[in-house]
Specification:
The protein is an alpha+beta fold and about 500 residues long. About 40% of the residues lie in helices and about 25% in strands. The chain is built from 14 helices and 22 strands. Strands 12-13-15-16-17-18-19-20 form an eight-stranded mixed barrel, surrounded by six helices. A hairpin with a 5-residue loop joins strand 13 (about 275-285) and strand 14. The longest helix is centred in the middle third of the chain and has 49 residues, at about 205-255. Mean pLDDT is about 80; it is low at about 495-505.
């Protein structure tokens, strides 16, 4: 039972693949049959129709040439007509005096014209078409001198190696005429076309014909469907195995406190230089090998399996533990990324405020950056949480403004005081094809709304100067410093001058 639960998804995929392969066989075979013979049917139908038309014309011309004496000359003319048409089995001439002749018997044929019921005879003025069991049997041309008779041979099934596998029905002036012989097996319609001039054609095929035409292809299709399903199932199994393995490792990392806060400086331009006014906390996973695993590898998984909030709580604890060892300027802050779900919990606000009080820290030191990888489920709950936090001085920032789910709508509902401009709007600064329309719109909106602005992803002086000139208050990026562990970041602060009279300064890492 446990094994079935463990592999249930893969088994369902394989089962569905088998069912699909089985139940789609008829549809696939119909489609393949139509594709294989549709063009042939149309061409052959037109060919047969044209041959019957030619037979009528041939009969008309022949009747004008005959002397209606049944002599050698008449026999020769009839013989030429018979050899010139693949449908004609033999030609008879029945004279008004009751005598007759045939191309197969130069003497009198000695047989009378057979009579047919009206429903088996289609009359066109002097010409009549005789049907037998819904098939063309013969064509007769009547005149005062006699009756010229063409007896037709039924055309061969063009599936030459599959006898009676299909038959064709031609509708002429409302009458159905069957071509080819059929057997007692069930047939299904696979072609229905209109050749014009009141002539329609339908083609029917039985299972022998389907098997003959596309049997191997249908079986191959079924095998491919099942194999494709099996491959998907294997992929699901491997993915589940990997994700379960990664989930287990992530849980172990949380338990062992292996998710380490890194700090990237946020600066404000001052007197031609830059002053450190804060830092964004970026989590890194320290693996057993001593290497750091980037957040893109595990944060989406944490958001999916619900462990992101536990990671956030642990990260806040570690950050507060670090900060309380420093003496910082009054308005210095550290920003921690939080997901929408974290702010929707009823206990988040009090939990954070209690943590600040427990560490003896001013709430102004903590700033929360709302990430937009996932949507808010309940904006009203989030708004209550944020209102409680901001009343105590905790700043709320909207990360990656302009790229998430509902950035500007959130700004109208939630008490957000700062927006962060994503690096995608910064990268093009200094390039010839840089388009500043969206960036200028975001900055104009922030000015009108009284919002503070932080631009991240700054890599060059050109970008920094452009943004400062555009009115951006705070800057962040590798130009000022990469994310580093706390011990390294602490050294960059220069603890000998950590007061308001001696603001923190920083030298850009690039010229």
């Amino acid at each position: 039972m446990e094994w079935l639960e463990k592999h249930s998804k893969a088994l369902i995929i394989i089962f569905v693949s088998i069912l699909f392969a089985y139940f789609s066989q008829v549809a696939v075979s119909n489609w393949l049959v139509q594709k294989k013979i549709q063009e042939d049917v149309s061409v052959l139908s037109q060919l047969y129709t044209e041959l019957y038309r030619q037979s009528f014309e041939q009969m008309r011309v022949l009747s004008e040439q005959l002397l209606f004496h049944c002599d050698d000359d008449d026999i020769e003319l009839m013989s030429q007509a018979g050899t010139g048409n693949i449908f004609i089995e033999y030609v008879d001439l029945h004279l008004s005096d009751g005598s007759s002749c045939s191309i197969y018997n130069k003497e009198k044929a000695g047989r009378a014209l057979m009579g047919y019921a009206p429903e088996n005879e289609i009359v066109f003025s002097e010409v009549s078409l005789i049907l037998s069991e819904s098939q063309f049997e013969e064509m007769r041309l009547h005149s005062q001198k006699g009756v010229l008779r063409f007896v037709f041979e039924q055309p061969r099934n063009f599936l030459s190696n599959c006898d009676k596998c299909l038959y064709m029905v031609t509708n002429v002036n409302g009458r159905d005429i069957t071509l080819y012989q059929r057997n007692e097996l069930p047939y299904r319609e696979i072609f229905d076309g209109d050749l014009g001039n009141n002539i329609g054609v339908k083609l029917f095929i039985n299972e022998d014909g389907v098997e003959y035409l596309v049997g191997d292809l249908v079986n191959l299709f079924s095998i491919l469907v099942i194999l494709f399903g099996a491959l998907i199932a294997v992929g699901v199994e491997l993915n589940q195995s990997d994700r379960k393995g990664l989930t287990g490792l992530l849980n172990e990392a949380i338990e062992s406190n292996a998710l380490i806060p890194f700090y990237q400086p946020i600066v404000r331009p001052v007197d031609g230089g830059y002053r450190i006014v804060g830092a964004e906390v970026l989590v890194r996973w320290l693996s057993n090998t001593g290497e750091y695993i980037p957040p893109d590898t595990f944060i989406p998984l944490a958001e999916q399996n619900g462990s992101i909030d536990k990671i956030t709580d642990q990260l806040v604890d570690n950050v507060l533990h670090h900060i309380k060892t420093l003496v910082l300027p009054k308005y210095f802050f550290v920003s921690v990324n939080v997901s929408p779900s974290y702010l929707e919990k009823n206990d988040t606000a009090m939990k954070l405020l209690d943590k600040m009080e427990e560490h003896g820290l001013d709430p102004h030191l903590l700033s929360l950056e709302i990430t937009e990888r996932t949507k808010f489920g309940d904006l009203n709950k989030a708004a209550i949480c944020i209102e409680t936090l901001t009343e105590k001085g905790i700043s709320i920032k909207l990360d990656d403004c302009g790229t998430g789910y509902g950035a500007f709508s959130y700004l109208h509902i939630l008490n957000i005081d700062t927006i962060k401009i994503d690096r995608m709007f910064v990268d093009g600064i200094g390039l010839e094809d840089f388009k500043n329309t969206i960036l200028d719109s975001i900055l104009a909106f922030s000015r009108e709304s009284g919002l503070h602005v932080v631009a991240e992803g700054i890599e060059t002086k050109v970008q920094a100067d452009y943004l400062i000139h555009a009115g951006v208050e705070m800057l962040q990026g590798s130009y000022f410093g990469d994310p580093v562990p706390f011990d390294v970041f602490k050294k960059s602060l220069g603890e000998d001058s950590l007061d308001d009279d001696f603001p923190l300064t920083i030298e850009p890492t690039q010229p």
